[in-house]
Amino acid sequence: AQKVTQAQTEISVVEKEDVTLDCVYETRDTTYYLFWYKQPPSGELVFLIRRNSFDEQNEISGRYSWNFQKSTSSFNFTITASQVVDSAVYFCALGNTDKLIFGTGTRLQVFP
Amino acid sequence: DVKVTQSSRYLVKRTGEKVFLECVQDMDHENMFWYRQDPGLGLRLIYFSYDVKMKEKGDIPEGYSVSREKKERFSLILESASTNQTSMYLCASSLPGQPFYLGLVNYGYTFGSGTRLTVV
């Protein structure tokens, strides 16, 4: 069975702090994909990143970075120098070719 | 700009009513999905469809049905709404994924803005 665990229900930080959102997954598939989505207050989930199970290179996109470690089945997301606009619910997801299984989400609040 | 459009942002219905939630996408995607989102439970898959007139049960199909008569439209039906179906409903679409050996990827989903349904 596949499962995604986001143990942090809610995180609060002050602007400019760095913050890491944890994601741990379980799967028996050898080929799979991992995703992060952002859900701002408007409600629409916005795609942030996709990784496949064969690519463990870390990725950086501006203030966002992702650390994928198969050895610990984790795909953590770090926001550097957080901003108020980063306040949202963030979901980690796992899938093979079509269906995605989502974690329960982490609500990030960034205070000015 | 590509889009997944859900017909209603907010909806209030009475217990026992038959409720239709509509979702339309303009990206010519084969796959369409209905999820519900509840606090502490994340997104849970209700139904999905890989093609017109095809449907598959997700993890929580009880109390729901779906209809996909046209490729661009995927409707979620609550046959007899109940208060425990009060939730945020999210529609999504995607291109069909391919296994690695074909060299393509799971493209991920494009989501609609959601319909917040309250059943009273």
Topology readout:
The complex is a heterodimer of chains A (112) and B (120).
Chain A: E1 3-5, E2 10-14, E3 19-21, E4 24-26, E5 33-39, E6 46-52, E7 59-61, E8 64-69, E9 74-79, E10 88-95, E11 100-102, E12 106-111
Parallel strand pairs in A: 2-12
Antiparallel strand pairs in A: 1-4, 3-9, 5-6, 5-10, 7-8, 8-9, 10-11, 10-12
Chain B: E1 4-6, E2 10-13, E3 19-21, E4 23-25, E5 31-38, E6 42-49, E7 56-57, E8 64-70, E9 73-78, E10 87-94, E11 110-111, E12 115-119
Parallel strand pairs in B: 2-12
Antiparallel strand pairs in B: 1-4, 3-9, 5-6, 5-10, 6-7, 8-9, 10-11, 10-12
Q: Could you explain how this protein is built, in words?
A:
The complex is a heterodimer of chains A (112) and B (120). Chain A has 112 residues and is mainly beta. In chain A, 0% of the residues lie in helices and 54% in strands. Chain A contains no helices and twelve strands. In chain A, strands 2, 5, 6, 10, 11 and 12 form a six-stranded mixed sheet that branches. Chain A is globular, with a radius of gyration of 14 Å. The termini of chain A are far apart. The relative contact order of chain A is 0.35. The mean pLDDT of chain A is 91. By secondary structure, chain B is mostly beta strands. Helix content of chain B is 0%, strand content 49%. Chain B is built from no helices and twelve strands. In chain B, the strands form three sheets. In chain B, strands 2, 5, 6, 7, 10, 11 and 12 form a seven-stranded mixed sheet that branches. In chain B, strand 8 and strand 9 form a beta hairpin. Chain B is globular, with a radius of gyration of 14 Å. About 4% of the residues of chain B have low confidence.
Note poorly predicted spans of chain A: none
What portion of the residues of chain A fall into strands of 2 or more residues? over 45%
pLDDT < 50 stretches of chain B: 100-104
How much helicity do the residues of chain B have?
Answer: under 10%
Globally, the shape of chain A reads globular
Task: Specify the helix fraction band of chain A.
Answer: under 10%
Q: Number of helix segments of chain B?
A: 0
- Counting H and I runs of at least 4 residues, what is the number of helices of chain A? 0
What is the overall silhouette of chain B? globular
Provide the residue-averaged pLDDT of chain B: 89
Q: Mean pLDDT of chain A, nearest integer?
A: 91
Alpha-carbon distance between the two ends of chain A: 41 Å
Task: Report the major sheet of chain A.
Answer: 6 strands, mixed
Order of H and E elements of chain B: EEEEEEEEEEEE
Q: How many angstroms separate the termini of chain B?
A: 36 Å
Biggest β-sheet strands, sense, barrel of chain B: 7 strands, mixed
Largest interface: A-B, 28 and 32 residues
Helix and strand succession of chain A?
EEEEEEEEEEEE
| Class based on secondary structure composition and strand pairing of chain B | mainly beta
